[in-house]
Amino acid sequence: MCKATLICYHNSKENSREVYDMSDELDDLFQDSDNKQETLSAGAKGKWKVMIVDDEPGVHEVTLMILKSFIFEDRGLEFISAYSGSEAIQEITKNPDIALIFLDVVMETDHAGLDVVKHIRETLQNRFVRIILRTGQPGSAPEESVIIDYDINDYKEKNELQRTKIITCTVAAIRSYRDIMTINGNLHALEKLVESSKSLFDVNLIDSFFSEVLVQLNSILTLDTDTAEETYSLILADNRIDDLVVISGTGLYEQSAGKRVGEVVSTGELEMIKRVFEKNIDIYTEKQAVTCLRNGDDIRNLLFIDNRNNISPWDTKLIKIFCANASLKLSREMQVKTILDNNPTFIMIADGESVTFLNKSFLNYLGFSSIEEFQCECKTLNRFLVLKEESFYKDKLLSEWLGVIVSGDSKEYIVHLLGKGELKSEARAYLVYANEIPVHNKSGRYLISFTDVSQMEMDRRKYQNMACTDPLTSIYNRKKFKDELKKEVERVVRYKGHLAIIMFDIDHFKQVNDRYGHQVGDSVLQELTALVDVHIRSMDVFARYGGEEFIILAPGTNIEGASKLAEKLREIIDTYPFNHVEHVTCSFGVSEYVTGDSTYILIQKADYALYISKDKGRNRVSIIEKEQTLEPIAKMQITT
């Protein structure tokens, strides 16, 4: 079996001479050879592909001789030959852009040609290629339903292989193919236009908008349906007439971002661009267009379009519609950006991995003049986050802590941010809210707001501190002590270890108040707590338990260590020269936690030890051993 062959003819003197020695019996096939056909020179576009499918080589030779110089709309023909139905299926599968097939009906089988048609239309779903059936057996003509259902363009008997008839049906078929492809291309462009408009209106804020403009316009214009090649090159520039800079580019200008427009276009093109600015008009030539994105009546951005083929009227309409939609979106985004930039609340947009937008007030706080400058130095806010033990964002990626906020619970989240000086002492607290932005065919973009609550945070801490602090002495109060004692007992139960408490009060404090007055008494309490506070560990919990009574929680300390600390404090107090009074002493009671005891029993043991110190003459330290049980304390607990 012969293999399919690819034959290309060019309209030149060299190949215009006769190639085949035709027999006399074929002379009548050229009886109309004097009829004039279209003779435009071959253009830049590729040739129309024509496939000849026939098991008779002579039919191939005749068809090639008739059509070798054929040109339609500045394009010649490229021939593909197949000699059986199976070869034809292979070739159409490899070359889906074939415009026309001359197809023999009877080849290896009586219906081989019809099988090829069925495969093209049903299996390959190719509704574009034009098909002309040919047969040397009049009885093998296809039924009417086949012609209609399978979109067969013509049916010829082989004795009709005359030059004029072949050229006429070829012109009609290729013109039909061109029109179908044009309609399909226009439909595809309209779909892309609608889709691009959706995409543009889904882009949030100016910085993403400009890059999306070229992406979407390029997708509408650059695919040539015949050559599948990108023919358009685009530039999007700013609006500084004296110093135009390329924001983004495609095609020939793909690497031009950041360059001056005058560096990448010709002098004539630059003059045309400037004329658009000066007169606020659009200019369209055969292969170039200069138009604008406008914010109202003001030119906001310039769009330069260059095509190595002519810009069709259809593409001109698409460009105008697209730019009108883009300008509408641009005006809206400019309004939104103005509102956001003048909002004292910090606004950020992030895609889960990096920050894509910061409003002006946020950029100023962080010490940047533009989002581009920020993105060059930082990808996220991590550099400016103050990490604290309770920070919900600690050890989390940007997408993770944003996900926590978006999760939907009603909890309020606070972040602490450094400013441009990056000093922790100047960090401020912000209440942060985040919402996922609904974007067409995309997800994972967030709009985040930061409201300064530093003053409220300071007030909250102030009131929180007031709730757990004794106002006179500024040490913990009784409630806070019991909260800390409960935590320490739970820790000892879980991890084992020691825990002791020391309780003490001022001896004969009522006499101090009676003799010197309550102001002096308050002064003594303040001096005493300040004195004790500097002689205990930072991990120890020191609190005013009531009146002139105080208590110390000593984690990791046994009864011996606690009694030594109590004795040390007793001696310091006994020898300290208090203001306004001659002498102050204290009595101490010490106890250690025993597994199974309640916090109440632990405190009562220390209190009972303090009672023993008082009973034995005051200004001394008494302890309750771990093994010692206190019947009165137990009875008191049961009663309570």
Describe the structure.
Keywords: Hydrolase, Phosphoprotein. The modification 4-aspartylphosphate is found at residue 104. Its EC number is 2.7.7.65. This is diguanylate cyclase. By secondary structure, the protein is an alpha+beta fold. It folds into four domains: 48-185, Response regulator (Rossmann fold); 201-341, Beta-Lactamase (2-Layer Sandwich), CATH 3.30.450.40; 343-458, Beta-Lactamase, CATH 3.30.450; 468-623, Alpha-Beta Plaits (2-Layer Sandwich). It is 42% helix and 19% strand. It has 20 helices and 21 strands. The strands form four sheets. A six-stranded mixed β-sheet has the order 1-3-2-4-5-6, with helices on both faces. A five-stranded antiparallel β-sheet has the order 8-7-11-10-9, with helices on both faces.
Number of helical elements = 20
- The CATH fourth-level homologous superfamily of the largest domain: Reverse transcriptase/Diguanylate cyclase domain
Strand content: 15-25%
Q: Please count the beta strands (DSSP E, at least 2 residues each).
A: 21
Span from first to last CA?
110 Å
Low-confidence stretches: 1-44, 196-207, 223-229, 636-640
What would you say the CATH architecture of the largest domain is?
2-Layer Sandwich
Structural class estimated from helices and strands: alpha+beta
CATH fold annotation of the largest domain: Alpha-Beta Plaits
From the alpha carbons, calculate the radius of gyration and give it in angstroms: 46 Å
Strand order of the biggest β-sheet: 1-3-2-4-5-6
The level 1 CATH classification of the largest domain is: Alpha Beta
Total domains, how many? 4
